[in-house]
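User: I'm curious what two different proteins look like when written out as structure tokens. Can you demonstrate?

Assistant: Sure. I'll show them one after the other, since each token string lines up with its own sequence. Here's the first protein:
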Amino acid sequence: MTPKLLSKRTGAELSMLVVAFIWGTTFVIVKNGLNDIEPFLFLGLRFIIAFLALAAVAGTKIFNAPLTTWLEGSLLGIFLFIGYTFQTIGLQYTTSSNAGFVTGVSVVLVPIIDAILKKTRPAVSTIATVLLAAVGLYLLSVPSGGFHPSTGDLLVLVCAFGFAFHIVFVDRYSYKHDPVAITSVQILFVGVVCMVLGLTTETWPQKFTSNAVTAILITSILATSLAFLLQNALQKYSTPTRFAVVLTMEPVFAALAGYLWANELLSSRALLGAALILCSMLIAIIIHSEPAISSSKDYSV
């Protein structure tokens, strides 16, 4: 790898560390906001505002995008919809700390999904990381002496699958499209679908509280527009596995935010489970150190 490409990879991965910080610290904000607005309406407003913010900056790139950008961006939007819908609903039934660590399981799922789609056999070490994460998830979400995992944690686990598929398919499609355009299509797709569901199944709030407004604005501008624009623009300089591993810091930031802002504490059993999940994520980078940039991609910015 040339020094120029190595520099681009480093910059891309540091940028994703910032994204991990933003995503991790917003778990508490979203959980508080959901006390005053229902999930689909919250997501609809969040993603539509995020789309409008991007359109204000680069509207012509969005509306002049080719049909392939709209089609492949919508496919990526489906995975985002799954991820955010199940994460947001799950947050109503679990802590922000738990949600952060369970969401982080997506990191471990990425190499498994990537291998299946490429019709290759996952390495034994990869399977081992999945099993380690599964044990950690059990300790984190199943109470001592109980046999039924937390409903909230199970919902967030579905979200982890959605985000894992999103990471894999962003790697396949993002480098072929203008980053602003394909990011905007994904965001618009989620916003429209969630808003339709919210208006037909939920009750519009009589007034918007400061918690709801804060959650909507912070998540729409920072955690959606900025975060996904960075991911779609920069992932071509790295690999889905390396990007996923950088995002292992998201649950750490979520746990810190939960402790500092919501007085959330993990039991010793839950701490052990969280530690196993985090270890499985970190091991993934050691056993998946594939080249950061494929020679078949277009690296022009």
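Here's a second, unrelated protein for contrast:
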Amino acid sequence: MATSTLNPSEMAGAAPREVAWGRVRPGRRIADRTLKVGCTLFTVIGVFALGWILAMLLVRGLSALTPAIFVNITPGPGTTGGGLANAMLGSLILTGIGILVATPIGVLAGTYLAEYARTSKLAALVRFINDLLLSAPSILIGLFVYALFVAPFGGYSGWAGSIALAIIAIPVIVRTTEDMLRLVPNGLREAAAALGAPHSKVITLVTWRAARSGIVTGIILAMARIAGETAPLLFTALNNNFWFSPTLSGGVSNLPVTIYQFALSPYGNWQELAWAGALIITATILVLSVVARVLIRKEAAR
């Protein structure tokens, strides 16, 4: 028969511990199973709701999607036919200008936070403001731009809409750029500095190149973030049923506001175009998100 190797003092202390564990373990098992069941249940509910929305969007959107949508402009009230060509082109221009404005500001600000002022008080303040902008409702940004660039000039414009979208995109690019640059090993910076390269050359030729995939990913995510924004455009670029002016003055047709207005209209033709536009913009955001994830995986593999 095997004998115990515990000494009397250890044997005396084993019983209370076993009793304590016997009292705790059933409660822990119940809590663990309850949490697991709750997480699974709410995950199923979320997936079901999302799948229902996507299925309805596919059914209604594909049935309304025709080649004419990509070549014709939006129709007038009570008419038939028409398309979304002017709205799609207007959205591309507003989003493109917004990204062109936001990219240099966001990349340079993120570089400053990661390379020059990691622990300074100014950097902490900038990060705090950036976090506020990340979580700020887009409608507030639209009202802010309306007060500065629409009301004083007496009219809506595509420039105001692009500025609103740029303000929404900047915090995303700043955060992503800073995070990606922080992932670059300090050994690369030290090796470049040891060769006599100034700090500016270290940043442009070493750290930016090492983190370029992550930085581009942040820009793509920011583009996906602003591509479907409606609220800020309602206060800045508004909408119209025609092609945009070369000066971007007056209302500029765009896809999010067109979907919003057509979906609330009593005209069947407009409602069908709204479903088709929703499918187009969802597919666009999906493609941008997939591209961003692919780039993130490549960056992680490096």
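A detail about the second structure: The chain has two domains: 23-64, 68-301.
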